[in-house]
């Protein structure tokens, strides 16, 4: 808060500067803005179709996100402000003025006036060529650089146009507003309408070209996928024809069923062989050797016939198995079976048995079982051969199945790719019929006169200059490290401040401070401050009488304070002596021209009553010279003289040199009972003053504190 108040005081002192600078700025701005031409504004509106799709019919798509719509608007707006787009407007403007001088928007500039008829024709041709090819002027070409300078001189260049052009979306609507400010109403309308129509044409062509390229690419991509799919399907067909594959799954299923059937038949035949072999062995065990010989000799002829029939039956049975049980072989197999049965019956009807033994039935069973055993054994061999053939044929189907699956997988992938490509192609075709069409729904009319900005510019110039001036003053105040008040001084030095004396006119007699019947406010303030300092010093002098006044630098107001304190103590009936101990300065000496010198006082004996006295104040001046106190007399002698003075006076005020002189000030301070340090306000404590401050702190209780002099007050 204290810093803020101090800043306000600082501003108050600079009040005339704060008033003068804005006032001068306003006056200068007033005369400058009088030369500004009037401004006209033309406005046009473009419908984009991005939000309002009424004119597009059925789109077939979902609603776009707001962010996508906003991004499309931004792209259109930025495209309208591209340098190449504005260059086309520049070309049309300059061509208008060159081809129709009577209707020119601006007066011909000096470069235009300097063009010859040939050069003008050449310029028109180049501008038309650049306009048709939509190219920019190349600054590397001297000829085109000259044309660019012509555009700039007529204020038709892109920088001049973009500086007065505003392109924006109308809130969240479907429209884009295009505004242009200029010094001629026809000029502003021409710029806006030319920009809108040219951009709409270029945008539509660019969008259509982009869509055509996309459709062409998608069509080629779709045809490629279709050819790939057709090729794979043709490869599969040729492979099936070459490998005689009709229906691989059905063939494999039928063949696998046959293998299972034959394996079942084989198991049945093996079981029959085992059963018949065991049965025949049991029958043989029931015959004795003589019966078997009789039986074998008797049946030899019959058995030959039966063996022949069995061979024929075995052959027929083998053919029947290999034909996969074809019915046409079944008749022959049945015929041979009946013939074999008849032959077996004949063998049993013959009287071949031992009459003593009735084993006819066993012999018949044995014969039938032997035939069945041979048939079963023959069936096993036939079934095994057929199983080997079927397995070999089934194994041949596995590579076909793998190859066909490979073809079918490739065809499935190719089919999906083709369908996706077809869908993308159809979508692109549909979207190409629904391209967003920009429409100029509101053409720009000749510009209307805009409210004058001159007053606003004048007011702003004053405000800106005032703020700038205020900012500069704040920086000056902020960067100012000087001491302005007692609090700053105490905080910076860690030494108390016993009083503050403001600036006062010291050219007149200081006695008027106390005897003026109607003092001014500043005199009254100064007088009260002196009383406060006098009270503090009088309180400190209970055990002494000598007060030394010193400072960090010369010319900080020690003499004024010395004389002011002398008068202040005299007002309370104190016998006061002032001693000018600052040999290198003569301020106090010049104020008391008839005073006795310190040098004479130290070397001679004189009554103290003979000292110069004025207004009840005694004084000892010096004769000036470059020497110190101890160079005038010994320390003992000086102490004796000081004691002599203390015996006669109530208060002895000594002005010492500044602490910059080091020993000169310290020699006087050595004989002082109290020390008062004087500091001039609005000055800065520097690093060179640090030893002097440390010395004052080392004095301890001898040091009373600072007196801040030459402070300023706000009247």
UniProtKB/TrEMBL annotation:
Subcellular location: Cell membrane
SUPFAM superfamilies linked: P-loop containing nucleoside triphosphate hydrolases
Domain Polysaccharide chain length determinant N-terminal: 3-82
GO (cellular component) term, any one: plasma membrane
Major location category of this protein: membrane
InterPro entries for the chain: Bact_polysacc_biosynth/exp (IPR050445), LPS_length_determ_N (IPR003856), P-loop_NTPase (IPR027417)
Positions of transmembrane segments: 16-33, 455-479
Record's bilayer topology term: Multi-pass membrane protein
Lineage: superkingdom: Bacteria
Pfam family, one: Wzz
Keywords: Cell membrane, Coiled coil, Membrane, Transmembrane, Transmembrane helix
Coiled-coil intervals, chain numbering: 366-393
PANTHER family tied to this protein: CAPSULAR EXOPOLYSACCHARIDE FAMILY, TYROSINE-PROTEIN KINASE
Name of the protein in question: Lipopolysaccharide biosynthesis protein
